[in-house]
Amino acid sequence: MGKEASAMVARRSTSRRDWRRWWWRLLPLACCLVCWVASSAAAAGVAVASLPGFDGPLPFSLETGYVEVNESTGVRLFYYFVQSEKDPDVDPLLLWLSGGPGCSSLSGLTHEIGPFQFAAKRYYSGGLPKIIYQPETWTKVSNIIFVDSPVGAGFSYAATQEGSKTSDTKTVKQLVIFLIKWLHDHPQFLLNPLYIGGDSYSGYIVPTLALAIDESNDSGDKPILNLMV
Fold first, then answer.
1. How far apart (Å, rounded) are the C-alpha atoms in residues 55 and 172?
2. Is 70 or 221 the better-scoring residue by pLDDT?
3. Helix, strand, coil: what percent of the chain each, to 5?
4. What is the pTM of this model?
5. How far apart are alpha carbons 114 and 7 in whole angstroms?
6. Could you give the CA distance from residue 220 to residue 213 in angstroms, rounded to a whole number?
7. pLDDT given for residue 101 in this prediction
8. Distance in angstroms (rounded) separating the CA atoms of residues 160 and 114
9. Contact 96, 133 (CB under 8 A)
10. Reported confidence tier of residue 185, pLDDT bands at 50, 70, 90
């Protein structure tokens, strides 16, 4: 085997080890969150004041919940919502999508732009991972909805087999419904500038979703979403 091939195999092996370390750090927190939300799946949102592994109360406003986006097939999308730490009444509202397709938005919340992260340790030694505040969080200047999409990603689920079937087209339609229903339950954010962002595969979804929102606004559907393009 040549040097280049050997280096490629080594990089892939390291990447797999890094992913396993990341997942084992994330698993305890995910289990705690699913216990909290399972008993109130139909609720518009539940305030989370503290998290296992984080010292003291959270220094930001965190809400989790489900939004039903298809009543006939029982599709419910799970979200984390973090209010801006600056001025939530006027700061932008950002809908953040993860890639995959099928990755949980928990990755964006804890490893990309969210307000907390796991304290770095080379090896997992058991027990709850320590969570620390992330001072470079985008929630310093914006309200962010991290949504598990498409159905089947993260804690999002369908009550029927038909509802579990997904495509980019269905994903976009469900996200439009998600935003309309979420803003109906959170009318104080209706006038905030709305932005859509994400990583990886969401690069296919974001522009299509922006177009669908624009078309929904043009058709007169209510509420009008204050999309910035």
1. 38
2. 70
3. 40, 20, 40
4. 0.81
5. 33
6. 11
7. 86
8. 32
9. no
10. very high
Structural domains of the chain, with CATH = 3-218 (3.40.50.1820)
144-167 confidence digits (pLDDT tens) = 999 999 999 999 999 999 999 999
Residue with structure tokens 């953040």?
Answer: 96
> Measuring CA to CA, how many Å separate 95 from each of 39, 99, 105?
25, 13, 11
- The span from the CA of 38 to the CA of 126, in Å, is 25
Strands 46-48, 62-70: pairing is: antiparallel
| pLDDT(88) > 70 | yes
Residue 221 has what pLDDT? 82
| pLDDT higher than 70, residue 28 | no
How many residues are there in the chain?
Answer: 229
Measured CA to CA, the distance from residue 209 to residue 197 in angstroms comes to: 10
List the Cα angle 40/44/47 in 5-degree steps.
75
- End-to-end, the C-alpha distance of the chain in Å comes to 50
Q: To 10 degrees, what angle do helices 168-185 and 202-218 make?
A: 60
How do strand 143-147 and strand 46-48 relate by DSSP bridges? Answer: unpaired
Q: What is the DSSP letter of 227?
A: B
pLDDT at 32: 52
DSSP output for 115-150:
SEEEPP-SS--SSPPPEEE-TT-GGGT-EEEEE--S
- What residues contact residue 23 under an 8 Å CB cut-off, 6+ apart? none
